[in-house]
Amino acid sequence: MTSKKQFKLVLAIETSCDDTSVALVTDQDHVVSMESQNQDDIHAPFGGVIPELACRNHTMRILRLLDGVLTRSQVSWEEIDGIAVTSKPGLLGSLLVGVSTAKSLALAFQKPLIGVNHLEGHLHAPFLRLDLNDPIESKPYPFVGLCVSGGHTSLYYVQKFGQYRLLGRTLDDAAGEAFDKFGKLLGLGYPAGHVVDRMAIKGNKKAFNFPRPLNKSGELNFSFSGLKTSGAQTVKKLGEIGEGVVADLCASYQEAIVDVLIEKLQFAMKKTKCSRVVVTGGVSANSRLRAELLNLQAQKKAQVFLPPLKLCSDNAAMIGYVGLRLLQAGKRDKLTMGPQAYMKVAEL
Ligand code: KG4
Ligand code: ZN
């Protein structure tokens, strides 16, 4: 097993939060096979992820998903060149399930192992191909990357693969969390981002004037707690409301979040003099955000890279993309590797 070995196919595992996912990814950025399962129904009654339940359910599901990926793709262990797994950041117990599984497989089948940063995975999700007929994205670097999910809202300047500079991040809540908390107040279930998105289509985005926090020129950090409070106060003041008002609330609240995200992206593009942008993470599935980004592209203000909807939220394919490149570069982790729940802010 030398570092010069060619890595054509890796098996990847993602279990950092409440999605269990296993995938096979090639050096041609193709997702040969992927099986994922979320735990939304399990955590919905609590209105948030319960770490112990997340970890327990990963344990119950991961081997079935692994078996599904191998059976469906008819790939044998001999064909797999390495194993990639999300090792940081995330919920400790959840990460532990993926990392222990990956280490056991690496040991049993004598495959090189590599731990992958979850955020680095998200930043590369747009460059994967679900279909072999899709074109390979060449030289995407440098780009401005906005990672926007239930746990993160961070802006990076990605000079090249492995070289990341944090430009800004949320000082309190993540954008996805702001969607989820507002949806919960409106009785839209958990997680609520996609429901707010759907309701907003029928609503008037100018019906309510929600704040756009930290939106002064050039500021690259985010803050969503003030918007969340304003949303809660508005809902409380309105009392009993019908579906039409809920739709207006969703459209107006969503517009505030989308405005902030688009504005910050533009600040970041200006600051870095880079018009190539990647927007990724669960919230990048938002239809209004995607429309505004495509609008920027149509106006030739940006070249936009978005993951396909299937790869916006947590998935193993993005971990495979990064893992394969790290292995190609000769990087390896030892079987003593452990999960790392938290990271220093600037570390990626
Ligand atoms: O990336 P992800 O699956 O997990 C984390 O790492 O957090 O992101 C989940 C988040 C949730 O907050 C969910 O409400 C949000 O992404 N989300 C959306 C949409 N789809 C998922 N937010 C707004 N609009 C959507 N269409
Ligand atoms: Zn994520």
Q: Describe it for me?
A:
Helices cover 40% and strands 18% of the residues. The chain has helices spanning 40-43, 51-73, 92-109, 118-124, 175-185, 193-200, 225-238, 243-272, 287-298, 316-328, and strands at 9-14, 20-26, 31-37, 82-88, 113-117, 143-148, 153-160, 163-169, 276-280, 303-305. The model has no long low-confidence stretch (mean pLDDT 95). The protein has 348 residues and is α/β, with parallel strands linked by helices. Residues 17, 149-151, 176, 179-180, 191-194, 197, 281-283, 285-286, 313-314 line the site of 5'-O-[(R)-(carboxyoxy)(hydroxy)phosphoryl]adenosine (KG4).
Per-chain topology:
Blueprint: E1 9-14, E2 20-26, E3 31-37, H1 40-43, H2 51-73, E4 82-88, H3 92-109, E5 113-117, H4 118-124, E6 143-148, E7 153-160, E8 163-169, H5 175-185, H6 193-200, H7 225-238, H8 243-272, E9 276-280, H9 287-298, E10 303-305, H10 316-328
Parallel strand pairs: 1-4, 4-5, 6-9, 9-10
Antiparallel strand pairs: 1-2, 2-3, 6-7, 7-8
5'-O-[(R)-(carboxyoxy)(hydroxy)phosphoryl]adenosine binds next to helix 5 and helix 6.
Quick overview:
By secondary structure, the protein is an alpha/beta fold.
Features of this protein?
five-stranded mixed β-sheet; globular; 10 strands; alpha/beta; 40% helix; binds 5'-O-[(R)-(carboxyoxy)(hydroxy)phosphoryl]adenosine; binds zinc ion; 348 residues
